[in-house]
Design goal:
By secondary structure, the protein is mainly alpha-helical. Helices cover about 55% and strands about 0% of the residues. It is built from 14 helices and no strands.
């Protein structure tokens, strides 16, 4: 669903850095400015516009005046940021009764819930699915944070507990300050969580900047 994981071509520069991507994608870093300009010149402004044409690698490579290997590598890179639809029953940091109410109403995945939050207020959600408004809001935040590559509910709940409530919040973070805060939070609360590695946080902050910011009805 492109509203959840589309990426503007102009944002590739934020994502393509040694501290924000995997080593196998490093060949794209040195040509990122050229890559962005040629894509924009060809009228390809976002991830999905590129993917719609990427099925014919040779033709796309020729039109962009790029090696076919570059086009294939960019396609794999963009797919790294594909939305992963998580099961709400696994999000155990949120009130189980509320999640059970949602399941009975057919709302069983993070995508289901994110979409629902654009149509109903926290009050309507809490009254309709046997929870509190705080439960409705927290579940939205955790689902939003799980849009980050590789982030499941355990990591998302740590980010939430450390004050990063949405992707928009997360995109504003300073990695060193966030890492230090999380280390203190884990130690002071004696919870069995690990502090993310610097590159993991840099990568996820970059992704939070590039991914669409989802706005609930609230």
């Amino acid at each position: 669903m492109r509203e959840l994981d589309n990426i503007a071509v102009a944002s590739l520069g934020v994502l393509l850095n040694e501290n924000t991507t995997l080593k196998r994608f490093y060949p794209l870093i040195s040509i990122k400015e050229t890559l962005v300009q040629r894509l924009l010149d060809a009228g390809i402004e976002d991830k999905y516009a590129f993917l719609e044409r990427a099925g014919q690698h040779a033709q796309l490579a020729a039109s962009l005046k790029l090696d076919m290997e570059v086009v294939e590598l960019l396609e794999r890179f963009l797919h790294l940021h594909d939305f992963v639809n998580r099961r709400l029953k696994d999000v155990d940091c949120v009130n189980a009764r509320f999640r059970e109410g949602l399941a009975l109403g057919g709302v069983k995945t993070s995508q289901d819930y994110l979409l629902l939050c654009t149509r109903r207020t926290w009050k309507e959600l809490s009254q309709g699915f046997n929870g509190a408004e705080e439960d409705a809001q927290k579940l939205f935040c955790v689902c939003d944070l799980m849009r980050l590559p590789g982030v499941k509910s355990t990591r998302a709940s740590l980010y939430y507990d450390c004050g990063c409530r949405t992707l928009k919040d997360f995109s504003r973070q300073n990695r060193e300050e966030l890492q230090q805060y999380m280390a203190r939070y884990i130690e002071e609360n004696q919870i069995k969580r690990s502090v993310p590695f610097p590159k993991e946080l840099d990568t996820q902050i970059a992704a939070a900047k590039a991914l669409p910011h989802w706005e609930p009805l609230g």
